[in-house]
Amino acid sequence: MPKTKYVGVYRDKNGKYFYQLELGVDKATGKRIQKKGRKDHNGKPFESAREAYKELTRLKNDFMLQNGYINYKLTYGQFMEQKYIPYYRASVERSTWSSRQTGLEQIKKRFGDIKLREITVEDCENYRIWLLNDSGYSQSYCSLMYGMFRKSLDYAVTLNFVNENISKRTKAISKGKSIVPYWAKEEFQKVLGTIFIDDFYEHMSFVLIWLYYMTGIRVSEGLALHWSDVDLKRKKLRVHHTLDMKNQNDFIRKPYTKTESGMRTISLDDDTVKILKRWKSIQKKHGVEHFILSYTDLPLYRSTVQRIIERYAKLANVPAIQGKGLRHSHVSYLINEFNADILVVSQRLGHSSPEITLKHYAHLWSRNDEGIADQMTGNIIFNFAKESKVDFNGNQAVKI
């Protein structure tokens, strides 16, 4: 019975996945409680080991809730190792787990030896203050870390290990205001002027920077793009995938975007269509036929995008920005060059509503009222009175 990387999940000789677990001993009969299954709670057969593990985790949690399982000697470290981390890993996307794993381990180390039921408000507040004053983390990362800690204690309450989430007697850490640096049109033009497109890799770098700047797509959306997502005749770009990648031998082109509203089709300008046509032809000569942003027909690493941006920012002597800064740059370009309508911008970005767009990009509309100010100039016409028509009493009127 071949094992999988998930504890309690196996694969039979026909390649079908199933789980098998023990839930302790029945208090009435003294017999071991065992569960085995090949389908989820909706009766659907498992298509992957991860799906089987999710069902296994759900059954464990339901059992503990129904049986009021409480372990008074359980330490926070044991709770994290045995309960919360397996539950969390089974509940989130692989990319989310990968980015949160280090943080969860750090939290486990911080509170590891303290019994779960003996964590105090002071322990929580000391951790909160340490994050803000001494950790060296950004405000947003401090918010993320303390939020993960609080959620772990929420789960302990759910499983009846503790009666309340003691950390909620302390204040949450706000994310703070973060304005992402971006390139203005002039800076973007300087960057393009440093790229030598007769080199295959540099040509790919040009296409990468151009496409992100001119479409506003998310980094993971761009890395997942296939040529089948582009209709060069109708000048449309279909954004329906994101890339989840560990390495070039282990990646998933997920058939959905960050949010449901992120599934969208973007209209392309003629310049972008011309650039993509030429790039497709060049790629074909090098045996690349699937991924648009690729020089090997394998997807790029996210870190490669950042290195490309930083390389040409340095050459152009403009500020280095993040990959998501090109998304902000696109919004700035639409607003400052074309006075773009908020609804159009929102749809191109894949936001669920214009309110979401304003929440993140309101500061980019700061110059949007200059045309109105110009029109207001001289529009109000009047003449001052030749003499006062007010009958003042006392010292309210001072004659000059």
Automatic annotation (TrEMBL):
Domain of life of the organism encoding this protein: Bacteria
Protein name: Site-specific integrase
A Pfam family it matches: Phage_integrase
Similarity-based family: Belongs to the 'phage' integrase family.
Residues annotated as domain Core-binding (CB): 78-157
CDD domains: INT_ICEBs1_C_like
All residue ranges annotated as the Tyr recombinase domain in the record: 178-374
Coiled coil: none
Keyword DNA-binding appears in the UniProt entry: yes
Keyword DNA-binding: yes
Keywords: DNA integration, DNA recombination, DNA-binding
